[in-house]
Design goal:
Elements lengths: L3 E4 L4 H12 L5 E4 L7 H10 L27 H10 L8 E4 L2 E4 L18 E2 L5 E3 L8
Parallel strand pairs: 1-2
Antiparallel strand pairs: 1-3, 3-4, 5-6
Length: about 140
């Protein structure tokens, strides 16, 4: 299965998402988006395919969001996209693209919605939260 993750290795949510993909027996294409940001058309498509607005795809925490005035309701989607592409830290993460869909995997277990049911056993997130049981089934 062709899977892409727009990943930030410094982000726990992103690391958990990547490991859940691997737990499904898939080695994804890992794109460190801070080093290699998506093209505008690619970012626009990911946001739309994930069912989000551009505003919902912007990361606020730990970014220059406030300093840049990006909370201004008068800014257009194009202006927000311009800011995200100029400073990729503003792109929320991790976006995951699979043949089954696209998701902003926050929280990380959202990725399970677009992965095949091929998990190789239990999965526990870095913070100790159990996500999959011994049979690889989602814990609700």
């Amino acid at each position: 299965m062709d899977v892409k993750i727009y990943h930030n290795p410094a982000c726990g949510t992103s690391r958990n998402t990547l490991e859940m993909i691997r737990n499904a027996g898939i080695e994804p294409t890992v794109i460190e988006y801070l080093k290699t940001p998506p093209l505008r058309a690619e970012l626009t498509k990911m946001i739309a395919d994930a069912g989000l607005t551009v505003r919902q795809a912007i990361r606020e925490k730990g970014t220059p969001h406030a300093e840049l005035g990006l909370d201004d309701p008068n800014l257009t989607d194009d202006q927000l996209l311009d800011a995200m592409l100029k400073d990729p830290i503003l792109i929320n993460r991790p976006f995951v693209v699979t043949p089954l869909g696209t998701r902003l995997s926050r929280p990380s277990e959202v990725v399970l919605d677009i992965l095949p049911d091929t998990h190789k056993g239990a999965f526990t997130k870095e913070d100790g939260e159990r996500v999959l049981d011994q049979e690889g089934k989602r814990i609700v």
